[in-house]
Model the fold of this input.
Amino acid sequence: MLQVRGYAALQANAPLTPFSFQRREVGPHDVRIEILYAGICHSDLHQAHADWGAAIFPMVPGH
Done:
């Protein structure tokens, strides 16, 4: 497993806080990239606030 870091909302309307989590290993049909910067858009904020219904937390928004 790969140990990765991001900023997560731990519950609805919570501030984003540093968060570590695991992802599966890169497979033979995957591409591994290093992300240096990510943006948070208006739809990410709606999702992190659970404005559109049930949301799963912790949540690492952004793209």
